[in-house]
Amino acid sequence: MLLVVGVYLVAGNLSGGGAGGGSKTLAKGAVPAAYQPLVLKWGNLCPAINPALLAAQLYQESGFNPRAQSAAAAQGIAQFIPGTWATHGIDGDGDGDRDVWDPKDAIPSAASYDCSLAKYVKDVPGNPTENMLASYNAGAYAVIKYGGVPPYEETRNYVERITTLAESFAAPTTRVDPSEQAAGAIAYAQDKLGTPYLWGGNGTADQGGRFDCSGLTKAAYESVGIKLPRVANDQYNAGPHPGRDELLPGDLVFFSDDLTNSRAIRHVGIYVGGGYMINAPYTGAVIRFDPIDTPDYFGATRVTEDGAKALPSAV
After folding, report:
1. What is the pLDDT of residue 148?
2. Nearest CA to 169 among 279, 40, 284?
3. Catalytic residue among 137, 202, 237, 279, which?
4. How far apart are CA 128 and CA 53, in angstroms?
5. By percentage, how much of the chain surpasses pLDDT 90?
6. Which of 46, 202, 233, 267 is catalytic?
7. 15-38 burial string, b = 16+ CB within 10 Å, else e?
8. Which of the four pLDDT bands, split at 50, 70 and 90, describes residue 25?
9. Environment class of residue 177 by beta-carbon count within 10 Å: exposed (0-12), middle (13-18) or buried (19+)?
10. What average pLDDT does the structure give for the chain?
11. Which residue from 242, 198, 248 is spatially nearest to 219, judged by alpha carbons?
12. For residues 229 and 63, is the Cβ–Cβ distance under 8 A?
């Protein structure tokens, strides 16, 4: 109970700060190491984009899967449809071909396409990045016609989703605001202490109320009205990433055998302060407190409602 009250006191003391934004630097491991140099280079191709925004688009489109293919025939890590690729695909690595399945071509092509759209609507009033994203979703003609982001619900949701998601790929440049729902999530997890672990467990009655690691964190935040993805490596993108010395109770803390790639995250817990988390560790154990300062500590996420809503339903 003291811990829960303390979270509210911390949140109240810090609530006046801004979350910051506009960072050109990627958060640690947010983009798989194989693609990070490409995203950093091509994410600065024009003023309308930045590396975090480009990363958010790639994650939204394919989850950084270079072999992704949709039912609509969209292909590769950037999910180009063949007609768009034929017009806008470029030879990003200079090897003499344009291969939609090769991230060294597809990532530069995604950035180039963004910048081409931005150029089409450069004289339209409003935010250039939002106008570019709206053009990506609804076409440049619609943006020009309406003098900015058109009044289409799908397009406005897309613009909001990508700009919000970009915050989870950018390294924070200022203090990250605390989550108002953190105390409730901790209280939920505390109530489950001693519950046996179950692989794939979501805490349902037919599972005896048991959880695995991401099942517990998902249920804890769902209890306060925030819906997280089911798996840990997607939960990492549900908000900005405070540093180790900036952790607050309620932050999700992540662990991986590959500290360069958030897609390789294999474990998550809820930080409670003092270097400890509540987590569902492994088969044969129970939900318990464990230290977070281990060699496989990857990083943390301060869950936000907007950040969780921005995540794609499947990647």
Report:
1. 97
2. 40
3. 279
4. 13
5. 87
6. 267
7. eeeeebeebeebbebbbbeebbeb
8. confident
9. buried
10. 91
11. 198
12. no
Q: Give the lowest-confidence range in 3-17, 38-52, 115-129, 152-166.
A: 3-17
Question: What is the tens place of the pLDDT at every residue in 65-116?
Answer: 999 999 889 999 999 999 999 999 999 999 999 999 999 999 999 999 999 9
Mean pLDDT calculated for residue range 136-165 = 96
Of 265, 291, 296, 266, residue with least CA distance to 278: 291
Ramachandran angles phi, psi of 184, nearest 5°: -65, -40
pLDDT at 72: 86
Structure tokens at 28: 């640690």
Q: Is residue 279 annotated as a catalytic residue, yes or no?
A: yes
pLDDT at 124 over 50: yes
Annotated catalytic, 213?
A: yes
Residue 14 pLDDT > 80, yes or no? Answer: no
* Contacts of 120 by beta carbon, 8 Å cutoff, 6+ apart: 135, 140, 144
Q: What values do phi and psi take at 234, rounded to 5?
A: -85, -30
Catalytic residue among 213, 233, 237, 261: 213
Nearest-angstrom CA–CA distance, 105 and 99? 6
Q: What is the pLDDT of residue 179?
A: 87
Cα–Cα distance for residue pair 50/64, rounded to 1 Å: 17
Is 67 buried (19+), middle (13-18) or exposed (0-12) by CB count in 10 A?
Answer: exposed
Give 126: exposed, middle or buried? Use CB within 10 Å, 0-12, 13-18, 19+: middle
Catalytic residue status for 46: no
Q: Is 42 helix (H, G, I), strand (E, B) or coil?
A: helix
Tokens of 262: 């958030």
**Token pair listed for 283:** 């088969």
Asked if 239 contacts 310 with a C-beta cutoff of 8 angstroms, the reply is: no
17 pLDDT more than 90: no
End-to-end CA distance of the chain: 37
